[in-house]
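Please review this pair:
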Amino acid sequence: MDLKTQELINTGKMLPLMEEFYTIQGEGAHTGTAAYFIRIGGCDVGCHWCDVKESWDANLHPPTHTDLIVENAKKYAETVVITGGEPLMWSLDYITAQLQLAGIKTHIETSGAYSFSGKWDWFCLSPKKTKLPIEECYREADELKMIIHNNNDFKFAEEQAAKVGKNCQLFLQPEWSKKEKMTPLIIDYVMENPKWRISLQTHKYLNIP
């Protein structure tokens, strides 16, 4: 990679774009709403149940000029969701500034494991045991989305909920491959602990991206 490209990446003016698409938000607080998704490559958090492992290696996804990504988003959506991979591996100050200048709301879905950057209308934090969030990400979280893969994850969810602000919305979401086993347990848990809400991957049930 040449020095000019590396400098553009370092400043967030180029990003390793994996894919971008207009769809219906399938999870969490904004389920059922239209949004333009920008998936950025690169992640070393290493969730064994990740359903987009092809996003992990940033080298597989060509650096793309951020201005072009913004122009594409402006054709479709009032809301953009930046996801990954792990999007906070990259500087997101530039892309969020440009999106907001265009009147587009900026949302992120992140593990919170890397330095905070960007300006966000909605910050969805989904902590992982393998690489915990930094403190600033707990403070910024509007939504805490905990993936429930086994019984121990309920304890982890409570530990993470204790670190976010009082206005943060709390969600438990069954890991897709364990949904038949874990969904009934999540239902019972939410009924006993009503501060939590259930999130489902409704886009998979609807067979949309």
